[in-house]
Amino acid sequence: MESIIILLFYIVYYVVIFGISIANYIMQSLGLQRIAQKAGVSKPWLSWLPLGREWILGSVTDAFDCAKGKNKKWRKWLVILSLLTYVGLFALYAVLIVMVILLIVFESAMAGEAAEVIAVMCCVIVCFVGLILGIAAIAQSVLCYICLYKIFDETVPEKCLLYFLLSFFVPLAFGICLLSAGKKYMPDAKKEVDGGPVLEGQ
Predict the structure, then answer these.
(1) What is the pLDDT of residues 29-78, one digit of tens each?
(2) Are the beta carbons of 58 and 78 closer than 8 angstroms?
(3) What is the CA radius of gyration of the chain?
(4) What is the value of pTM for the model shown?
(5) 135 vs 89, 95, 125, 131, 161, CA distance in Å?
């Protein structure tokens, strides 16, 4: 009976976490799409897709920077780092699977020392790939939050810091704040461009 209760607890817990994640994803995508439309960034629907949402997040930030005479190419760096993170994650899982297969297949055929050498080599590779993945993921997260701050500063300047801190520390707040910013943002002038910002008159 006790094991069934524990199992039910874990099922409910993961269903709730999954539901919160889906709700947050929908609110983030919808808020980012609205801001992108108002900022004049083309293909705002990309905010619903992996890598596409990083492109749109960076493109919106680029549009705001362009209006201030800056040109930082946030969208390109976000996509590169996100792609590196996805590829690194895939490579990490592939190495782990290969490592397990090698250990299972060759454990009985090899002497104990040879099996240990293979295990150590695989662990070194996993640690190296994990380190690269971790660095890319941290850099991507930092850039995302810089872009988010810039977006809040442009869309809801009076609540910029509050929205940013809530998005950073409170679950679900990222999506709620981005959705709210998308509703409140009223741009002066915009012109749609292919994947990036152009100001009127340029």
Answers:
(1) 999 999 999 998 999 999 999 899 999 999 999 999 988 888 878 999 99
(2) yes
(3) 22
(4) 0.78
(5) 12, 18, 15, 6, 26
